[in-house]
Design brief:
Strand order of the largest sheet: 9-8-7-6-5-4-11-10
Shape: globular
CATH superfamily of the largest domain: Glycosidases
CATH topology of the largest domain: TIM Barrel
Structural class: alpha+beta
Number of strands: 34
Helix content: 10-25%
Radius of gyration: 26 Å
CATH class of the largest domain: Alpha Beta
Strand content: 25-35%
Number of domains: 3
């Protein structure tokens, strides 16, 4: 088995060398751990890295150069990045290393600025990323146990990592590239499985594919309990911790596992993550700077998580448990803002870093921002009239998104009532948020919102024979941390009951998102006969005219909750009524010189219902990700209608039936 894996690694490696036209460096390059001197050694000389995290999946690829340039100008000599498996293999067996997924180009850009690379190859990455970087198609296997030797997990893991390592082997330092270390798994000591066979499998596969002389490491929290299940012999154990004024005490934990070798903090937190409905997280610059100085004074190696946070475009945000989805912004209060701007924290930390690693590189300027002003948004259609949907699937009981082979976004469920009945409609199987509409004679007679893990997941209904219920279920992002990752199915994951009687005979159709999260041309209209009403989940559209595209922010404060598309690109979720994020970052590469189509799927309540004068969005030149967070809002949905502008409808339809691309910046 090991020989077969090694042979596969070598074969793919040589094929990739021929494709890329790369060959090993004629000059011997080495990167090793010098245990005698408690340091790393690069080409026989002591080496200490001062690194920052940046996720290539969260930064438009056109901006990789800009962000890496700024990181080098801060005095960093290394970067750290995750490999999200799910963006590279969104469909089983179909692997993509192009465009936004072109990790080799990202690594080459880092090398251009003399930045070494600390690679966190997964397969699990956490990172507040959808399913912790694992592809959702894994969930098609019954009773899946991720991050273990479960055959339904480990077989695709082995195939993926063999292919990934072959792609990246030419980028190892010894082969002339920038990669100096490779992480095995990610904070495995925090996971309940504690499967050493799994860790050994990952270690051995990395050795076979990358060579025994590649420095492998693990990262875990700074306690003996975390290190117990997260470490292995022959894999260097590192720890992570945030602001502290006594870092020597934190490093004592690492010394319990690694008595000799370099001190390493693989995640020193410059900020923290956000959740919808919670205040924006910040850590005072002065505290981060003081702690950083103390760590560097010890001679330790450090990676700052994050140095550039970026954006969860599309549906790529993760969630924590109890269920808390992460916003579109992943700013993280990092030294470089979500848009890559120079901040006070950047300049302060730069002054600390350059004490230990001087640089003559000037700090590049922040990118220009443009306030384009207001764009009038016009009601175009309800979701049910205009949706691009896969062929409807009939079933006795509701199917999950995974059973429908549709992993992101939304799915619509439809049930026709066979007799008059009233009582509680139990939707406790909703994952994650449902928009419920009862339809009678083409009119909406009931609307409600049901959210997972809340105290009341029932809706009181009074229906006649022939009435039907539409349940639009939104996948708000899969859990990326902890044992609940094994229960990440979306849609309706259990039966629906009315008066404790299970409802049977369901029709369901998922949106036609392809693996790149583009909307497909519908093969079946699945049009629902409902009177058009902007109170239903509905599309709104407007046109922005631009002479010269620049980065900007779209203010969504008048709207409630939904999804934003610009020129077909899925820019992410908005939810200003939950907060703290109110404005979405729009990189200039999403805009065209000339006309730009702004399309919103408003799921709950548009401002147009109250006043046409408020039916707009506004492009601003400043972010707003730290708004005051109100209490949870579940606003009633009314049934007013709004006329449809035929010319705008035609325009929208022509765009929707073309490709909707997440990353074609």
């Amino acid at each position: 088995m090991a020989i077969l894996r090694a042979g596969s690694c070598l074969l793919i490696f040589y094929l990739i060398l021929n494709v890329h036209g790369k060959s090993g460096s004629s000059e011997k390059r080495t990167f090793v751990i010098d245990y005698d001197n408690d340091t790393f050694s690069m080409d026989g000389k002591p080496f200490r890295y001062i690194s920052g995290s940046i996720h290539y999946s969260r930064v438009p690829y056109q901006y990789w150069d800009d962000r890496l340039h700024k990181m080098a100008a801060a005095g960093l000599n290394a970067i750290q990045t995750y490999i999200p498996w799910n963006i590279h293999e969104p469909e089983e067996g179909k692997i993509d290393f192009s465009g936004q997924q072109d990790v080799v180009t990202f690594l080459e850009t880092a090398q251009k600025y003399n930045l070494s690379v600390i690679l966190r190859s997964g397969p699990y990455i956490c990172g507040e990323w959808e399913f912790g970087g694992l592809p959702a198609w894994l969930l098609k296997s019954d009773n899946l146990k991720v991050r273990t030797m479960d055959p339904n997990y480990i077989k695709p893991v082995g195939r993926w990592l063999t292919r990934l390592y072959a792609e990246l082997k030419p980028m190892l330092y010894k082969n002339g590239g920038p990669i100096i270390t490779v992480q095995i798994e990610n904070e495995y000591g925090s996971y309940e499985a504690c499967d050493y066979d799994y860790l050994r499998f990952l270690r051995d596969l990395a050795r076979e594919c990358l060579g025994n002389d590649t420095v492998l490491f693990t990262t875990d929290g700074d306690s003996d309990g975390f290190l117990k299940c997260g470490t292995l012999p022959d894999v260097y154990a590192t720890i992570d911790f945030g602001v502290t004024y006594t870092p020597e005490k934190n490093f004592e934990i690492q010394r319990h596992k690694e008595p000799k070798g370099p001190l390493v903090n693989s995640e020193f937190y410059t900020g923290w993550l956000d959740h919808w409905g919670e205040n924006h997280s910040t850590i005072a610059t002065s505290e981060v700077a003081k702690s950083l100085d103390l760590i560097l004074a010890l001679g330790a190696n450090i990676n700052m998580y994050m140095f550039e946070g970026g954006t969860n475009f599309g549906f790529w945000n993760g969630a924590n448990y109890p269920y808390q989805p992460v916003p579109t912004s992943y700013d993280y209060d990092a030294p470089l803002s979500e848009a890559g701007d120079i901040t006070e924290k950047y300049m302060t930390l730069r002054s600390v870093i350059t004490k230990y690693n001087p640089t003559a590189m000037a700090v590049p300027p922040s990118t220009p921002k443009k306030a384009y002003g207001k764009v009038i948004m016009t009601f175009a259609s309800t979701l049910y009239d205009m949706a691009n949907l896969k062929d409807p699937v009939m079933s006795t009981y509701p199917l999950t998104m995974e059973q429908l082979d549709s992993y992101y976004g939304f799915v619509i469920y439809k049930h026709i009532f066979k007799s008059q009945v009233s009582g509680p409609l139990d939707l406790s199987g909703v994952r994650d948020r449902a928009y419920v509409n009862v339809i009678r004679d083409k009119k909406v007679v009931l609307s409600a919102v049901v959210e997972r893990d809340t105290s009341n997941m029932t809706v009181s209904v009074d229906v006649d024979a022939g009435d039907f219920v539409l349940v639009l279920v939104e996948n708000q992002g899969r859990i990326n941390y902890g044992g609940e990752m094994n229960y990440n199915h979306k849609g309706l994951i259990s039966n629906v009951t009315l008066n404790n009687i299970t409802l049977t005979d369901w029709e369901q159709s998922a949106f036609g998102w392809d693996p790149s999260q583009r909307m497909l041309i519908p093969s079946n209209s699945f049009l629902v006969p409902v009177a058009k009403a902007p109170s239903l989940p509905s599309f709104y559209a407007g046109v922005l005219d631009v002479e010269e595209p620049q980065d900007t922010y779209l203010d969504m404060s008048l709207w409630t909750k939904g999804q934003l598309f610009i020129n077909g690109m899925n820019m992410g979720r908005y939810w200003p009524h939950r907060g703290p994020q109110v404005r979405l970052y729009i990189p200039k590469y999403a805009l065209n010189a000339g006309s730009n189509l702004i399309l919103m799927l408003e799921l709950e309540q548009a401002p147009c219902h109250h006043s046409n004068s408020k039916c707009y969005v506004e492009f601003m030149d400043q972010p707003l990700i730290n708004a005051t967070v109100p209490q949870s809002i579940h606003r009633g949905i009314s049934q007013d209608t709004k006329p449809l502008w035929r010319w705008l409808f035609d325009l929208i339809m022509s765009i929707i039936f073309s490709e909707w691309n997440l990353f074609s910046f």
